[in-house]
Design brief:
CATH architecture of the largest domain: 3-Layer(aba) Sandwich
Keywords: ATP-binding, Cell membrane, Membrane, Nucleotide-binding, Transport
Structural class: alpha/beta
Largest sheet: 6 strands, mixed
Number of helices: 9
InterPro entries: AAA+_ATPase, ABC_SmlMolc_Importer, ABC_transporter-like_ATP-bd, ABC_transporter-like_CS, Mo/tungstate-bd_C_term_dom, P-loop_NTPase, Transp-assoc_OB_typ2
Order of helices and strands: EEEHEEEHHHEHEHEEHHEEEEEEHEEE
Shape: elongated
Radius of gyration: 25 Å
Number of domains: 2
Helix content: 25-40%
CATH class of the largest domain: Alpha Beta
Bound molecules: adenosine-5'-triphosphate
Protein name: ABC transporter ATP-binding protein
GO molecular function: ATP binding
Pfam family, one: TOBE_2
Distance between the termini: 39 Å
CATH topology of the largest domain: Rossmann fold
Number of strands: 19
CATH superfamily of the largest domain: P-loop containing nucleotide triphosphate hydrolases
Strand order of the largest sheet: 6-7-8-3-9-10
């Protein structure tokens, strides 16, 4: 007879950063960050995402040690760093404006923190030059920041952050100072560096597109709370709440007898009302209020029937129709249609965040 074997629980994957009931209260009123729990996997690219004022930068600054914690804990590789000084945490920060010293060369900017630590000139210059070579900036090591492009300054800023050999790199809107073209280029570089270095990156952004392009894990915040944690694919395909569906975009939020549901705009079909069956559980009448050509697809804006469109009204619903489908059957403003969707394309949405959502990666 087999002896009963106690069930063994496999340990959770190692976390580079763990936030435990982390809270920041600046003054009376609702906290900027409200008892959030989060584990960020070692070696992953994590994006903190949310609208202005949601608490993402405050969270990052608390991890960096640039902001005091009202209550809760921050652990780095199981070490409690909540009250440790910024320079002694194993984190490094890369800022939006790169914060390079204008009067110092790229090499001296990168070597600066080693100088402050009393590292000798030969060693600090060797280490700084190695890092500049690594980010393909070795040839421009003697240039001052004003003599470098935005992208080159970003590489210097990255090298400068890495010189202290951090375990976790914190990036506060690192791409927002760049023009749109360079932003996309540097986004790819950030992702490549993170993979090459095998470091944990925590990147704050308000851009859904940026977070989707970069993150292994996205953390969507709203009003100091975490609304949802997941891969870009999970968040985009199964937004947990009405807020996430609306914030991520590309979704319609519909009221049904069973509550609110979300359906992706590219997972809805349009049929002329004259050819449609009566509305059912997975269909709805609507009137076209907007037709936008977007290249590979046409975006139709729609209102519920009976709502007269005004010049300032934004469409309540939108549907993506492929360019070919629109060419085969164009739709015009004011046309009555039926929207339909497959039952599996719809998922229910929470309307309010739960205050103590525990987000474990
Ligand atoms: N030093 C401060 N003193 C008082 N309130 C602050 C301070 N810093 C931030 N706040 C408040 O805390 C809340 C969260 O701010 P935080 O900067 O973390 O938001 P955010 O999501 O990063 O926004 P943004 O994208 O605009 O930077 C906001 O309501 C903000 O006004």
């Amino acid at each position: 007879m087999n002896a009963a074997v106690p069930a063994t629980k496999s340990p959770p994957p190692s976390a580079a950063i763990e936030l435990v009931a982390l809270t920041k209260r600046y003054a009376q009123g609702s906290p900027a960050v409200d008892r959030i729990n989060l584990r960020i996997r070692s070696g992953s690219y994590c994006c903190l995402l949310g609208p202005s004022g949601c608490g993402k930068s405050t969270t990052l600054r608390m991890i960096a040690g640039h902001e005091s914690v009202s209550s809760g804990d921050i652990l780095l590789e199981n070490r409690n760093i909540t009250d440790r000084p910024a320079a002694d945490r194993g984190t490094a920060m890369m800022f939006q404006s790169f914060a390079l010293f204008p009067h110092l060369s790229a090499l001296d900017n990168v070597a600066f923190s080693l100088k402050m630590k009393g590292v000798g000139k030969t060693e600090r210059h060797t280490r700084a030059k190695d890092l500049l070579d690594r980010v393909a900036m070795g040839a421009l090591a003697n240039r001052k920041p004003a003599e470098l492009s935005g992208g080159q300054q970003q590489r210097v800023a990255l090298a400068r952050a890495l010189i202290t050999r951090p375990k976790v790199l914190l990036l506060d809107e690192p791409l927002s100072a760049l023009d749109p073209f360079l932003r996309i280029q540097m986004r790819a570089e950030l992702r490549r560096w993170q993979k090459e270095l095998g470091l944990t990156f925590i990147h704050v952004t308000h851009s859904q597109e940026e977070a989707m392009a970069l993150a292994d894990t996205m953390v969507v915040m709203n009003h100091g709370l975490i609304e949802q944690v997941g891969s870009p694919h999970e968040i985009y395909n199964r937004p947990a709440s009405e807020f996430v569906a609306r914030f991520m975009g590309g979704h319609n939020v519909l009221d049904t007898a069973a509550g609110k549901i979300g359906v992706r705009t590219d997972h809805m079909q349009v049929t002329p009302a004259s050819q449609a069956a009566p509305d059912g559980l997975h269909s709805k009448r609507a009137v076209i209020t907007d037709v936008e050509y977007q290249g590979t697809y046409v975006l139709l804006g729609l209102q519920h029937p009976g709502v007269s469109p005004t010049a300032h009204a934004t469409a309540e619903l939108s549907v993506m129709v492929s360019e070919a489908a629109f060419a085969a059957r164009p739709y015009s403003l004011g046309e009555a249609v039926q929207l339909s969707w497959a039952p599996e394309a719809a998922h229910s949405l929470k309307t309010t965040p739960s205050p103590q959502l525990s987000a474990v990666l």
